[in-house]
Design brief:
Helix 5 links the parallel strand 11 and strand 12. The radius of gyration is 19 Å and the shape is globular. Helices cover 30% and strands 24% of the residues. The chain has an 8-stranded mixed sheet with strand order 4-3-5-6-7-8-9-10, sandwiched between helices. The protein has 8 helices and 17 strands. The protein is an alpha+beta fold and 333 residues long. It binds 1,6-di-O-phosphono-alpha-D-fructofuranose. The site of 1,6-di-O-phosphono-alpha-D-fructofuranose has 12 residues, from loops. 1,6-di-O-phosphono-alpha-D-fructofuranose (AFP) binds next to loops.
């Protein structure tokens, strides 16, 4: 069987009616290289002494794991000298990281969650990297600021994630379908294994952290109540439940076999519209899910249409198989 490497796939995309600019191709290759390094560290675990807490906190007040910090540094170092980016922003940094003076600056902005699901690292469960690429406005001449990143998800030119599980897989979209690449650990290259990934419209599987049930708003209470009622309830169908607590792993499962993933707004902290972050979790995952034929809303509107007001803004998330996301969104509206 002839294999298509990530490099070959990207070059072919570039040739195909110019759908992929060369500098964006180069950026994605660099991100993929960084993800291989992160995959290697994740795979070593305790052998490299990198499990456990870093002893620091991030801007959201969450304790950082050693691997959160390592993955963030790997992504910054790999991308700062490539000449494709004007600045980067990350879950682990309060402010954007501008490409230092003396290094060539490119026209893209990248946001990432370097190690999503990091509370799962120490227990050897899948974690992942999520990234989103935007264009920097041409009028920005100096160092980009937070305001330059505040673009709705519809403006993303690329998004992807790498899941570090039993296999390491990179899943990508540039707005014309979703493609999955499996890391061949023997020769170190990502190989196209999942072409044109499509989410089934209907599903019998849902994912939500049920321990928060008492804090949910009425539409979510109603919807999950109906899922739990199964065949004898209004949906007349039995549903199965999964909760990995790594969004990357949940989205990957949904891309492969369908399902609905929810992290709703809840009453634990009424000031927050949800737990997940819009710009480096909600937007890239919504872009991928929509490109695979699924749907992603905050309960009221399409996630990709939200105008962000802050870099680390939070968002409620309902994504996956269209029939179910439509239903839970209709209950909100
Ligand atoms: P961590 O990266 O802090 O482990 O958070 C992971 C996450 O943002 C997302 O990947 C999960 O879906 C969600 O949080 C899990 O949250 P709960 O711990 O509230 O279930």
């Amino acid at each position: 069987m002839s294999r298509t490497s990530l490099s070959r796939f990207l070059i072919e995309q570039q040739r195909k009616a110019g759908t992929l600019p060369p500098d964006l191709r180069h950026l994605i290759e660099t991100v993929a290289r960084a993800c291989k390094a992160i995959s290697h560290s994740v795979g070593k675990g305790e052998l490299a002494g990198i499990l456990g807490e870093a002893g620091t906190g991030n801007v959201q007040g969450e304790a950082q794991k050693k691997l959160d910090v390592i993955a963030n540094d790997v992504l910054l170092e790999a991308n700062e000298w490539g000449g494709n980016l004007a600045a980067m922003a990350s879950e682990e940094m309060e402010l954007p990281y501008s490409i230092p003076d003396g290094l060539p600056r490119g026209r893209y902005l990248m946001l990432f969650d370097p190690l999503d699901g990091s509370s799962n690292i120490d227990v050897n469960i899948s974690v992942g990297t999520i990234f989103s690429v935007l264009e920097c406005d041409e009028s920005v001449s100096g160092h980009p600021t937070e305001a330059d990143f505040l673009q709705p998800g519809t403006r993303q030119v690329a998004a992807g994630y790498t899941v570090y599980g039993p296999q390491t897989m990179l899943v990508l979209t540039f707005g014309n379908g979703v493609y999955g690449f499996t890391l061949d650990r023997e020769n170190g290259s990502f190989v196209l294994t999942h072409s044109e990934m499509k989410i089934p419209q209907a599903t019998g599987e849902f994912a939500i952290n049920m321990s928060n049930m008492r804090h949910w708003e009425a539409p979510v209470q109603r919807y999950v109540g109906e899922l739990l009622a199964g065949k004898t309830g209004p949906l007349a169908k039995d549903y199965n439940m999964r909760w990995v607590a790594s969004m990357v792993a949940e989205v990957h499962r949904i891309l492969v076999r369908g399902g609905v993933f929810m992290y709703p707004k809840d009453a634990r902290d009424p000031a927050k519209p949800g737990k997940l972050r819009l710009m480096y979790e909600g937007n890239p995952m919504a872009f991928i899910v929509e490109q695979a034929g699924g749907m992603a809303t905050n309960g009221h509107q399409r996630i990709l249409d939200i105008q962000p007001a802050a870099l680390h803004e939070r968002v409620a998330v309902f994504l996956g198989s269209k029939e179910e996301v439509e239903r839970v969104t209709a209950y909100h509206n």
